[in-house]
Amino acid sequence: MSLVRFDNFLLNYPSDTSFSLQIKNLILEKNKKIFIEGPSGCGKTTFLNVITGLTKPVTGNIYVLDTNITALNQVACDRFRVDHFGIIFQLFNLIPYLTVIENIILPCTFSTQRRKKALANNKTLEEEARRLCTELDITDSLLNKPISQLSIGQQQRVSIARAIIGQPDIIIADEPTSALDDDRKNQFMSLLLKECNTYNLDLIFVSHDTSLQSHFNQIYHLENLNNTHSNNDHVIT
Amino acid sequence: MSLLKLTLKRLFSRKVTSLLLILSIGLSTLLLVGVQKIKQSAKDSFSQSLSGTDLIVGARSGDTQLLLYTVFRQGQPIANMSWKSVKEIQTFPEISWVVPISLGDSHKGYPVLGTTLPYFKHYKYASKQPLKLKTGRLFQDVFEVVLGSEVAKHLNYKLNDRLFLAHGIAKGNLTIHKNYSFNVVGVLKPTGTPVDKTLHIPIEGFTALHIKGDKKTIKTYDLTPKSVTSCLIGLTSKISIFSVQKQIVNWKQEPLMAIIPGVTLSRLWDNIRTIDTAFFIITLLVTLITFIGLLLVLLISLQQSKRELAILRTLGAHPLQLSWLLILESLFITTSGVIFGLGLMNSFGYALKPFFEEKMGLILSFNVLTLPELYLALCIIFIGILTSSIPALLAYRKGLSEGFVSL
């Protein structure tokens, strides 16, 4: 079973003719830490939107864990995304008025599958969130604080906890280190990779920062993947 | 975490805006329901002032004028009707009872009504409720007085107190009938009608007031009145109402008129209704402005929380759930506003109850929500939901059309 498979995929916007993303054939394998690299504006976020079913292609199919997500209707696609993906956003995107615990358990509000998995580990979602917080060194005193009172480092950890709660199959990370200094960047990467290894989660990490490549075992240049730009080989290692 | 909890958290994160919205919807509810309540109380109080009386007869003037001074003690009659006519009308075979009424004197601003004992038997208010004594008894002697509840309460009169009556009902210095003092023998129970503000004396006492003399000698006089202000009439059968009315209108001895109180009351209320409708429209406009405010806040909130809704959407929230979030938000604000408004109305009601009763004679029951008022409150909540459907629809469409993709 492949992690993600692109089959004659094409995405373009009638309103923006300068951009298009075309991937004829691409297979992202399971049990890998995948790094998608490319300069700003090359379509990295669009690539992730497509994988997670937030954006539908003009033509072609995308298979995630052997499910053709392009064939799913809106509701099924939403459910598939929340069940199988844990997402770490560029600016962490935690909900400011929710507490640390509430932010962490948020995906379980929308995913029955992840709620069940989380409750298999602990009696309540709150307890599971607390367990993850302990694992991620988020102190008890922070748990009921609103996000706005947390430092950037603490927010990073909360965003990782939110992505891994209920153990989704794939972790998607959209340039989460772009605003961090080197120390925090390394700290974040270590923590993220540790958690992915602990729970055996696949990771698709997107960034323009090539210095992060060393953490991954499969690396792609998006410009090379995009057939509208070139027809080069897909994989560089 | 449920969608409801998420909605509440969202609302509490915008405390000031939410509270201001709740306050403005509360005030609109207070206005809308309060006005309806006062209007209904006024209408009830007005239309229930007199029941069980088939006709009011008096000197020919206007329908409304005769009703106003006979029932509400407002205004003054152009002329009196003769006692002879009263006696002759009483002999009509269709007539069951006649109660004469003499008005024109007062006591400390409260009107004095001269009548006969059958008044207390036949005068009915609300759903044919008779007058009842709170304390004491009805008058038996010429110089005895039975007080309305409000007169006794406000002037602090008790049984056996003595009082003097004044000539006329105008404000200012009135001539006091110093020769004759009246003994308080009874106090009536509250009725919520002008009876509460009236002093009732025997019709002979009313005649005596206008004869020079003293209490000892006056009783030797014939105290039968020469004329009265009007009289209340009860018929043996309602069928004869128009024939009796016609006979009185065609009365040869003097120009008289007979009105059907229920008809004149509703005609009078219809005249007032124009003002009432105008007031209602103004209140509706205030409510409309409030809901435009709510819509504005929801649209601004939608714009401001675009990123937040995108995160929720990416984390798996269905576009419909985003719409629900906004609808629930509006539902909570509107319902809280309505509850706050009704609470406010209750508080104001209790505080202002004495004022309404004293100054306007309105007996208001603020603690009871009537069915039309409940409908009005539910209608406000429904408009709140309807208002939120616009941003909810926008959120739904944006959610579907990838307007809320967040990565």
Number of strands of chain B: 14
- N-to-C SSE series of chain B? HHEHEHEEHEEEEHEEEHHEEHEHHHH
Assign a percent range to the helix content of chain B: 40-55%
Number of helices of chain A: 8
Report how far apart the termini of chain B are.
23 Å
Order of the strands making up the biggest sheet of chain A: 6-7-8-3-9-10
Please describe what this structure looks like.
The complex is a heterodimer of chains A (237) and B (407). With 237 residues, chain A is α/β, with parallel strands linked by helices. Chain A has a single domain (4-236), classed as P-loop containing nucleotide triphosphate hydrolases (Rossmann fold, 3-Layer(aba) Sandwich). Chain A contains 8 helices and 10 strands. In chain A, strand 4 and strand 5 (67-68) form a beta hairpin. Chain A is globular and about 50 Å long. Chain B is α+β, with helices and mostly antiparallel strands. In chain B, the strands form 3 sheets. Chain B has a 6-stranded mixed β-barrel. In chain B, strands 2-12 form a two-stranded antiparallel ribbon. In chain B, strands 5-6 form a two-stranded antiparallel sheet. Classes of the chains: A alpha/beta (237), B alpha+beta (407). The interface between A and B is medium-sized, with 31 and 25 residues.
Short note summarizing the structure:
Chain A has 237 residues and is of the alpha/beta class. Chain A is built from eight helices and ten strands. Chain A has helices at residues 44-51, 74-84, 100-110, 112-121, 125-135, 152-164, 182-199, 222-225, and strands at residues 4-13, 16-28, 33-37, 59-64, 67-68, 85-88, 170-174, 202-207, 218-221, 235-236.
